[in-house]
Known about the structure:
mainly alpha; 6 helices
Amino acid sequence: MASDSGRARASAVTLFRIAASEPGAAPATDFQTASLLAYHRAGVTKPSAFLVAAIALVVTALGCKGEREQAERAEAGRIAHAIAALRDAPNEAKPPRIAALDSEKCTSEALCELKRVCVDAYRTHVRGLEAARIAARALDSDGESQARERIAELVAASERDLVRARELVRRCSDLESEVVRRFGL
């Protein structure tokens, strides 16, 4: 057995030397070196082309999946940051933050839903606040009965929007929590 092990080691070393010293051949990569050492440990003296190709394919596929996951995690981070900036902004500064969140790119269904719900929530919130401001200004001015009807409509619209916004903001927060947990943000 000892002689077989010695021959396998010699064969692996020979393969490595041949791969590294062939005229015009690129230097062996860490992957090639690791592959040859793995073959040596497994007792394989000459790896088949099919096996080498299969290993390369698996390594490439795993690398692509990792890149996609990293890109999605980065996207989730950008969207979560935009939501936090929007949430923390004073009411007067929310419209540009809503536009910033709305312009964020999203590729996954979960992140696009999060973005959509949060944009809708804060747009509804801002619309409700604006209706309340208009109604308050109208009340401050001396109005006629037609103006009072318009004020009542504005107050009712404001209340509807703010109640709806509260529900949407709660949903936005829940979805954001899921994304933060999922991506470890």
